[in-house]
Amino acid sequence: MPTLFVLLKLGSPTAPNHAPHRTRSSRAGGRIGHGTLDIRTIKMGVRRKQHADITSAIVMAVLAVFVVSCAHPNPSAATKVTRETLRVQLPAGTTGVDVYWPSAATQAPMVIVAHGFSRCRHNMSGWGQHLAQEGFVAVVPDLPTRSDHARNGRFLSELRAYLLDDESWREHIDPARVGLLGFSAGGLSSLLSAAHSPGLAIWVGLDPVDRDGLGVKAATMVQSRAVVLTAEPSACNAHGNARDMISALPRHEHFKVAGAVHVDAEWPTSWLAELVCGRSTDERRAEFQARATQALKEAFALPPAGEPSRQRSFSTRIAEHSGPCDLRATQSLAYRCGSPGFRRRVIP
Known about the structure:
Blueprint (H helix, E strand, L loop, with lengths): L1 H9 L28 H30 L12 E10 L2 E10 L5 E7 L10 H9 L3 E5 L7 H17 L7 E11 L1 H10 L7 E5 L7 H6 L5 E6 L11 H7 L3 E5 L14 H7 L4 H18 L14 H8 L21 E4 L2
Parallel strand pairs: 1-9, 3-4, 3-5, 5-6, 6-7, 7-8
Antiparallel strand pairs: 1-2, 2-4
Helix pairs in contact: 1-2, 4-5
């Protein structure tokens, strides 16, 4: 907020307490009739108007930035994705949930996406739309608590069960193909859920962080395939403390995105998060997208873009991942939040 104060201070008018309404000039050729504003008064009024316009523009810009950091992207007709907003009440909490699914009428794999600490579901809305475009049903909830990771983990498990048991969602979701994906503290919460989900196909951690050893303990119990993508160590990812969780996972693949900052894995992020964690880039975010999408498609036996469906062994997949990232693994890397078009249906 100090930045906002400085901007407003710089844009504030500094007019005197009062100004004459009428004046006379005794200069030759410059006499102005009584009741008419002189040139200085007119200029002063113009300056005040300019200062007021500048101040208003600064305030609106700053407010817009704060709103955008946790706002829905703009709708667009170009994508074939449906989003439905639910309000779910579960034992672990009551929150809002956005469900994105592709236009195809067939059942699709479901991926539950968990946001980071002190964030909201809209900060992972880019992932929701992207995954739906790639053929998944993407479920993006607001986690019920900021820092009770165990409770957030229970909520994710309950949400999974709720959607799979709901008859209205059976036409969209394939119950045999379910995965979890979480960013930062959401990576920890989703890992805690994965530890108690024996039928889970895959857990994907996007630069996850651990707290009080919860993740290390849970990692030993995860039975599904686990794929972890990490950024460079920094204060924002607890200096890379996911390394201990990764070591404890029985079956895992780990990819370090060279040069990435923590919020490269958040989509969309905000300027305030970048101010704290470093500037994100489209290139690094694209690598997180490509690797995560490829891992999910392999776990659900879906073909990468432009390839026929085929089963591949776990050892073969590890060998393939040893090379540079294959950006062809996803169809919509050029997509960004705010692209025009997708339909929204709201259930009260």
